[in-house]
Amino acid sequence: MLKQIDGSYAVGEAVALCRPQVVSCYPITPQTHIVESLGKLVKSGELADCSFMNMESEFGAMSACIGSSAAGSRTYTATSSQGMLFMSEAVYNASGMGLPIVMTVGNRAVGSPINIWNDHSDAMSVRDAGWIQLFVENNQQAIDVHIQAFRLAESLGLPVMVNMDGFILTHAYVRVDMPEQEQVDKFLPVFKPFQKLDPQSPITMGALVGPEAFTEVRMLAHSRMERALELIPAQAEEFANIFGRNAGGLVQKHYDDETGVEAETVLVTMGSVIGTAKEVITEMREMGESVNAVTLRTYRPFPAQALREAVIGAKRVVVLEKSFTPGMGGIVYQDVLAALNGTGIEVQSVIAGLGGRPVTRKSIRTLFAGCDERSNGHGFEVLDLDNTTMDRELAREASVLDRII
Amino acid sequence: MQSQILHFPAKEAMIIGQQTGDRTISNRLADTADSLQGAAERSNALDSGHRACQGCGEALGARHAIDTALDTTDGELVVVNATGCLEVFSTPYPQSAWRTPWIHSLFGNAAAVASGVAQSFRIQGKENVRVIAQGGDGGTTDIGMGCLSGMFERNEDVLYICYNNEAYMNTGVQRSSQTPGAARTATTMPVGEHPGNRFGTGKSVPKIAMAHGIPYVATANIANPRDLEAKVRKAMSIRGARYIEVFVPCPLGWGTASCDTIKVARQALNCGLTPLYEAEYGEITAVNKIAPSETVGAYLKSQRRFAHVFKRGNEHQLEAIQAIADANIRAFDLVESK
Ligand SMILES: Cc1ncc(C[n+]2csc(CCOP(=O)(O)OP(=O)(O)O)c2C)c(N)n1
Ligand code: SF4
Ligand SMILES: [Mg+2]
After folding, report:
1. Residue stretches of chain A with pLDDT short of 50
2. Are B93 and A210 a contacting pair at CB < 8 A?
3. Is the CB of B85 under 6 A from ligand 2?
4. Whether A176 and A306 share a structural domain
C-alpha cells in the first residue's frame, strides 16, 4: 500500500508487520519515533501479543532483549549514538550468545562534543561486536530490509542491526510502499529458536569459557558470518520475488557498464548519501565521464568478494564515508583497501558528513574534481573542511601545546 | 554461542539415596526431614562438583533458595545469574552445575535480562514458568542498581535474590557498597589512621526495594536455612517484583575457617548486625526476634578481615560497629521482651 509517511513511522509499521513479541525501548534522538510508533501500535491492539517494555536505560533495553530472545520470543529494539555506547557491553553479549535480536540504529554522531545529527560513528563503535550490520539507502529499503533482517537473524542465530541515517531517513516524509501482512507472513515464518530457556529441556547459557575453547567459539561466530554472506543475497532474491523490489543484498552496483568497458572510477559509499551522489554521477556519465557507484549494503560480514566483483576493471575506487577514527582516518576505507589488496586498484579515502554536515551535490563534484590538496597529506581527504577555522584553532593549539613540550 | 551446555531437567535429577548428605545443614538434630533440604525427594538445583571454595556461604544460600523455588514451581523455573563467584564456580565450560534452565549475561544486567525473560514467557502464555534473578552484592547493589530499580519500578514478575558476602569476591575481595566499616578488603587495607574500610552512610538495598513499594522484600541469613526456605516459598507465592537479600559469609574473603561459615553467620545474626525481616508493599510485616547470645566482638574476632580492630588504638572501630548493631536492635525491636 502506498503511503506518504515519516521514515521512523514507516519502520515502526514494517517491524509491526514482522509480529515482534517483545519490543524494548529507551528514548534517544533520532531513533525515538520508531519505538514510539510501536508503543502506540501495541497499545491500540494493532500489534497484538507483543510486550512493549519501557526500560530504565539502553543497557537495560538491550539486556531485556537478551532475556526475551533467550526465552524464545521474537525481539526488537532501536537506538542511536550515545545509546549504542551505553548498551555496548550488552550488544557484544547478545551476539556472543547467538540471539537473533533485530535492532534499528538511527545513525548519529557520538560525542563529545554532543551532536544529535547523522554520521556512522555509532555503528562503527560496535563494528567488531559480532552483529550483522546492514545499511539502507532510502526509506523503502528501510522497510524492506527490516523484514529481511528478522528472517536473516532467525535463520542464522545472530543479531542484526539495520542502520538508517538519522534525520536524513528517520525524519523524512516520503512515499513508500508498505507491504501487506500476507506477503510478510509468506516471507517470514514463525520464530523457531535453535535453543531457548525451557524447563522441559534445560540448558546453561553464557558459561565461562577459558583459553581451551574461546578461540574456537570465536571462529564458530565467524563461520556464521560466512554463512550470512550466502544467505543475504539469497534472501534478497526471494524477497524480490515476493515483493517485487530490489532491497538488501551485499553490495549494489548502480549503473550497468558495457561489459569490458568498466568505469575508471568507482565511488563506494554506505547509507543514504548515494541519493545525492547518484545525481552527480548520472550527470557526469551523461557528459561521458567514466564513473560508477557501488554501495555496501552489508558492512558486517564484510562482502569482500562481492565488492571485488563489483569494482573489478576500475582504475580507482574512492571510499566516501561518514566515519572517522582519529589517528588513522577512514574506517570503511580500511576494509575496502584490504578487500582490494592485490587487485592493483588504487583506493582513496574521503571523509564527509560528520556530525550532520550536509553532503551536497557541490561537495561531491569537488570530490571528483580533486579535493583540497592540503588534506592529501593525511592519506585521506575531508570534504568541505573549513580551513579558516582549522588554521586559527591549530595555531591556538600549537601555542598552548608547544609550550608544554 | 556454541558454549551452551545441555543437561537434564531438574525434576529428573532427584537425589538418590541422599548422596550429598544434606542432613548436615538443615536437619542436623532431626530424625526426620522437616525442611526441603533434608528431604530425599528434593531436586538438586546446584549439583555437586562445582568449584566454590569449601564452606562457601553463597553456594549454600543459592542451593537452598533455588531448590525451594524449584519445589514451589514444580520445576517450571528459569534462573538468570549476574557475573560473580556463583556464576564462575558453577559454569566453567563445558560443565554446568545447574539443573535448571540458567542464563548468565553480564555483571550488572541480571534484573533487566530477567525482566525480558519474564515478559517473553508472559507473551507466550507461559505464565507458569517463573523467573529468578540472582547475583552477589556487587552485581546487585552497585553496578546492577539501575537495572534492579527499573525491574522493581515496573513491578516485573521476577524474584531477585542477592547473596551478600559484603565484597567483590570473584575479582579478589575488593570493597563494595555492602562492605562494613573497618573491614579489610584488597582495596581497603588495614593501614594508616583509619585501617580497613571507612565508615560510610551504609546502603540498605532491602529498604531501597521497600521504597519502590514492591509486593515482597525479605532479608535472610544462611545460618537459618529454614527461614530462608520459608521466605523463598512466600516470595514464590506472590506475583510481581520481589527481593530477598541473603547474608552469606565468604571464608576466603573474610578470613574465616571453612567449617565456620554457619557459625559466623549465626554470630552476625545474634549480635544484631543482620536483622531479618519481611516487608510487603513497603511496610514491614514481620521481624525475626533474636536472643542476643553473641557479642559484636565475638563475631568480629572470628574473621581475619577485622583483626586490626582489636589492636590498641582502634577501639573506636569496635564501638562504631557495636553502635550499628545496637541501632538495628532498637530500630527493628529485635530482642524478645521477657
Ligand atoms: C562491567 C564489569 N565490570 C567488572 C567486572 C569484573 N567483575 C566480575 S565479578 C566481580 C565481582 C563480583 O562481586 P559480587 O557481585 O559481590 O559477587 P561475589 O563474587 O562476591 O559473589 C567483578 C568486579 C565485570 N565482569 N564486568
Ligand atoms: S571466594 Fe567466597 S564467595 Fe567466592 S567461592 Fe570462595 S567462598 Fe564462595
Ligand atoms: Mg560479593
Report:
1. none
2. yes
3. yes
4. no
Q: For ligand 2, is residue B88 a contact (CB within 6 Å)?
A: no
A238, A261: one domain: no
**CA pair distance B326, A288, nearest whole angstrom:** 91
Of A50, A202, A220, the CB nearest to B99: A202
State which residue of chain A sits closest to B128, comparing Cα positions. A199
pLDDT: which is higher, B212 or B49:
B212
Q: Of B105, B126, B148, B152, which to mutate for an interface test with A (greatest number of A Cβ within 10 Å)? A: B105
How many domains would you assign to chain A?
Answer: 2
User: Which residue do the cell numbers 565475638 mark?
Assistant: B298
Cβ burial, residue B24 (10 Å; 0-12/13-18/19+): exposed
Instruction: Using pLDDT thresholds of 50, 70 and 90, give the confidence band for residue B3.
Output: low
Which one of B171, B178, B246, B250 would you pick to mutate in the ligand 2 pocket, going by the greatest count of ligand atoms within 8 A of its CB?
B250
Ligand nearest to the CA of B135: 1
Is residue B331 over pLDDT 90? yes
Q: In DSSP terms, which residues pair with B28 in a beta bridge?
A: none
Q: Which ligand is nearest to the CA of B140?
A: 1
- Residue A131 inside a domain? The answer is yes
* Per-residue pLDDT reduced to its tens digit, B268-278: 999 999 999 99
Domain range B36-331, CATH architecture:
3-Layer(aba) Sandwich (3.40)
For the stretch A193-230, pLDDT in tens is 999 999 999 999 999 999 999 999 999 999 999 999 99
Q: What is the predicted pLDDT for the residue at B17?
A: 38
Neighbours of A6 (CB within 10 A): 18
**Of the candidates B7, B168, B8, which has an alpha carbon nearest to the alpha carbon of residue B84?**
B168
Q: Which domain range does residue A315 map to?
A: 254-388
More confident residue, B9 or A225: A225
Q: Which three cell numbers stand for residue B128?
A: 507458569
Query: Could you tell me if A106 and A41 lie in one domain?
Result: yes
Q: Where are the domains of chain B?
A: 36-331
With a 6 A CB cut-off, is B253 part of the ligand 2 pocket?
Answer: yes
Q: What is the pLDDT of residues B88-147, one digit of tens each?
A: 999 999 999 999 999 999 999 999 999 999 999 999 999 999 999 999 999 999 999 999
Tell me the backbone φ, ψ of residue A214, rounded to 5 degrees. -65, -45
Give the mean pLDDT of B35-43. 72
CB of B89 closer than 6 angstroms to any ligand 2 atom: yes
Asked whether residue A222 falls in the same domain as residue A300, the answer is no
Quick one: pLDDT at residue A260? 76
Contact B58 CB / ligand 2 (< 6 Å): yes
- Is residue A94 located within the same domain as residue A139? yes
Region at B266 (left for phi over 0; alpha for psi -120 to 50; beta for the rest) = alpha
Q: Which residue in chain B has the smallest CA separation from A219?
A: B2
What per-residue confidence (pLDDT) applies to B12? 57
Burial class (CB in 10 A: 0-12, 13-18, 19+), A300: buried
First-to-last alpha carbon distance for chain A, in angstroms, is: 65
Q: Which residue among B142, B168, B173, B261 is best mutated to probe the pocket of ligand 1, counting the most ligand atoms within 8 A of its Cβ?
A: B168
pLDDT higher than 80, residue B264: yes
Instruction: Find, in chain B, the residue whose alpha carbon is nearest to that of A59.
Output: B109
pLDDT of residue B36: 77
- Ligand 2, atom 4, residue with closest C-alpha: B85
Rounded to a whole number, what is the largest CA-CA distance in chain B? 64
A137's grid cell: 539507502
**CA-B253 nearest atom, ligand 1:** 20
Phi/psi of residue B232, nearest 5 degrees: -65, -40
